[in-house]
Amino acid sequence: MLLHLPIVMLATLSPAAVSDTVPKFDIVRECRFEGGSTVQFQRCSDDEDDALQDLQKTWTQFAGADKRNCVVEATANGFASYVELLTCLEMARDARDPDDNPGGSQTAEQTSSPRRESSGWQVMPSKKQGG
User: Fold this and answer.
1) Is residue 117 classed as helix, strand or coil in its secondary structure?
2) Per residue in 25-59, pLDDT tens?
3) Is the dihedral of CA 50, 53, 55, 61 positive or negative?
4) For residues 14 and 105, what is the distance between their CA atoms, to the nearest angstrom?
5) d(Cα 47, Cα 70) in Å, to the nearest integer?
6) Whole-angstrom Cα distance, residue 34 to residue 39?
7) Which residues make beta-bridge pairs with 127?
8) Do 61 and 54 meet the contact criterion of CB atoms below 8 Å apart?
Protein backbone atom coordinates (compact mmCIF):
# COMPACT_ATOMS: atom_id res chain seq x y z
CA MET A 1 0.00 0.00 0.00
CA LEU A 2 2.84 2.42 0.75
CA LEU A 3 4.20 1.96 -2.77
CA HIS A 4 1.16 3.79 -4.14
CA LEU A 5 1.53 6.76 -1.80
CA PRO A 6 3.84 8.80 -4.09
CA ILE A 7 1.46 8.24 -7.01
CA VAL A 8 -1.50 9.40 -4.94
CA MET A 9 0.43 12.46 -3.75
CA LEU A 10 1.43 13.40 -7.29
CA ALA A 11 -2.08 12.89 -8.58
CA THR A 12 -3.47 15.31 -6.01
CA LEU A 13 -1.11 18.08 -7.06
CA SER A 14 -2.73 20.29 -9.64
CA PRO A 15 -0.30 21.52 -12.32
CA ALA A 16 -2.75 24.30 -13.21
CA ALA A 17 -2.69 25.67 -9.67
CA VAL A 18 1.08 25.95 -9.77
CA SER A 19 1.06 28.04 -12.93
CA ASP A 20 -2.06 30.17 -12.27
CA THR A 21 -0.22 32.70 -10.13
CA VAL A 22 3.16 34.37 -10.31
CA PRO A 23 5.55 32.60 -7.93
CA LYS A 24 6.79 34.47 -4.88
CA PHE A 25 10.51 35.23 -4.88
CA ASP A 26 12.68 36.83 -2.20
CA ILE A 27 13.78 39.99 -4.00
CA VAL A 28 15.85 41.22 -1.06
CA ARG A 29 17.87 38.00 -1.02
CA GLU A 30 18.38 38.15 -4.79
CA CYS A 31 19.54 41.78 -4.73
CA ARG A 32 21.85 41.18 -1.75
CA PHE A 33 23.39 38.29 -3.68
CA GLU A 34 24.11 40.71 -6.54
CA GLY A 35 26.19 42.72 -4.07
CA GLY A 36 27.39 46.25 -4.52
CA SER A 37 26.42 49.61 -3.14
CA THR A 38 23.11 50.82 -1.80
CA VAL A 39 22.42 52.41 -5.20
CA GLN A 40 22.99 49.08 -6.96
CA PHE A 41 20.78 47.31 -4.43
CA GLN A 42 18.01 49.86 -5.00
CA ARG A 43 18.37 49.55 -8.78
CA CYS A 44 18.13 45.76 -8.50
CA SER A 45 15.05 46.04 -6.26
CA ASP A 46 13.40 48.48 -8.66
CA ASP A 47 14.10 46.20 -11.64
CA GLU A 48 12.71 43.19 -9.80
CA ASP A 49 9.60 45.14 -8.72
CA ASP A 50 9.00 46.33 -12.29
CA ALA A 51 9.37 42.79 -13.64
CA LEU A 52 6.98 41.46 -10.97
CA GLN A 53 4.35 44.05 -11.91
CA ASP A 54 4.71 43.13 -15.60
CA LEU A 55 4.41 39.44 -14.75
CA GLN A 56 1.27 40.04 -12.70
CA LYS A 57 -0.34 41.81 -15.66
CA THR A 58 0.67 39.28 -18.31
CA TRP A 59 1.02 35.95 -16.45
CA THR A 60 -2.10 34.35 -17.92
CA GLN A 61 -0.93 35.09 -21.46
CA PHE A 62 2.05 32.73 -21.22
CA ALA A 63 1.87 29.01 -22.01
CA GLY A 64 1.84 26.66 -19.02
CA ALA A 65 4.86 24.68 -20.22
CA ASP A 66 6.82 27.90 -20.69
CA LYS A 67 5.90 29.02 -17.17
CA ARG A 68 7.10 25.75 -15.66
CA ASN A 69 10.34 25.73 -17.65
CA CYS A 70 11.09 29.39 -16.98
CA VAL A 71 10.40 29.12 -13.25
CA VAL A 72 12.97 26.32 -13.10
CA GLU A 73 15.44 28.44 -15.06
CA ALA A 74 14.79 31.62 -13.05
CA THR A 75 15.30 29.82 -9.74
CA ALA A 76 18.53 28.04 -10.67
CA ASN A 77 21.45 28.15 -8.25
CA GLY A 78 19.21 28.80 -5.26
CA PHE A 79 18.34 32.38 -6.20
CA ALA A 80 15.23 33.62 -7.94
CA SER A 81 14.74 36.60 -10.23
CA TYR A 82 11.54 38.08 -11.66
CA VAL A 83 13.66 39.80 -14.32
CA GLU A 84 15.05 36.44 -15.47
CA LEU A 85 11.59 34.85 -15.32
CA LEU A 86 10.01 37.61 -17.42
CA THR A 87 12.85 37.53 -19.94
CA CYS A 88 12.60 33.76 -20.28
CA LEU A 89 8.83 33.87 -20.76
CA GLU A 90 9.02 36.65 -23.34
CA MET A 91 11.71 34.80 -25.29
CA ALA A 92 9.72 31.56 -25.21
CA ARG A 93 6.59 33.39 -26.38
CA ASP A 94 8.45 35.20 -29.16
CA ALA A 95 10.11 31.99 -30.33
CA ARG A 96 6.76 30.24 -30.41
CA ASP A 97 4.96 32.96 -32.41
CA PRO A 98 7.31 35.41 -34.14
CA ASP A 99 4.38 37.16 -35.90
CA ASP A 100 3.14 38.46 -32.55
CA ASN A 101 6.61 39.60 -31.51
CA PRO A 102 6.56 43.34 -30.89
CA GLY A 103 10.36 43.28 -30.79
CA GLY A 104 10.47 42.42 -34.46
CA SER A 105 11.92 38.94 -34.76
CA GLN A 106 12.85 38.28 -38.33
CA THR A 107 12.09 35.24 -40.41
CA ALA A 108 14.82 33.46 -42.35
CA GLU A 109 13.79 35.34 -45.49
CA GLN A 110 14.12 38.72 -43.80
CA THR A 111 17.58 38.24 -42.30
CA SER A 112 20.66 39.82 -43.76
CA SER A 113 24.09 38.36 -44.13
CA PRO A 114 27.39 40.22 -44.49
CA ARG A 115 29.06 39.97 -47.89
CA ARG A 116 32.61 41.06 -48.59
CA GLU A 117 33.13 43.75 -51.22
CA SER A 118 36.40 45.31 -52.28
CA SER A 119 35.83 48.38 -50.08
CA GLY A 120 34.94 46.38 -46.96
CA TRP A 121 32.00 44.58 -45.38
CA GLN A 122 28.49 45.41 -46.49
CA VAL A 123 25.19 43.98 -45.32
CA MET A 124 23.30 42.45 -48.20
CA PRO A 125 19.88 40.80 -48.11
CA SER A 126 20.17 37.03 -48.14
CA LYS A 127 18.83 35.14 -51.13
CA LYS A 128 15.76 32.95 -50.82
CA GLN A 129 16.55 29.28 -51.08
CA GLY A 130 15.02 27.24 -53.85
CA GLY A 131 14.34 30.24 -56.09
Assistant:
1) strand
2) 999 988 988 778 899 999 999 999 999 999 999 99
3) negative
4) 35
5) 18
6) 12
7) none
8) no
Enumerate residues 6+ apart whose C-beta is below 8 A from 54. Answer: 86
d(CA 1, CA 86): 43
50-106: pLDDT as tens digits? 999 999 999 999 999 999 999 999 998 888 999 999 999 999 999 988 776 555 544
Question: What's the pTM?
Answer: 0.62
User: What is the sign, positive or negative, of the torsion defined by CA atoms of 39, 45, 46, 51?
Assistant: positive
The 8 Å CB, 24+ separation contacts for 94-102 are 96/63, 96/66
Judged against a pLDDT cut of 70, whether residue 115 lies above it is answered with no
Angle at 70 (CA atoms; ends 65, 76), nearest 5 degrees: 135
Domain boundaries, the chain: 23-95
Environment class of 79 (CB within 10 Å of its CB; exposed 0-12, middle 13-18, buried 19+)? middle
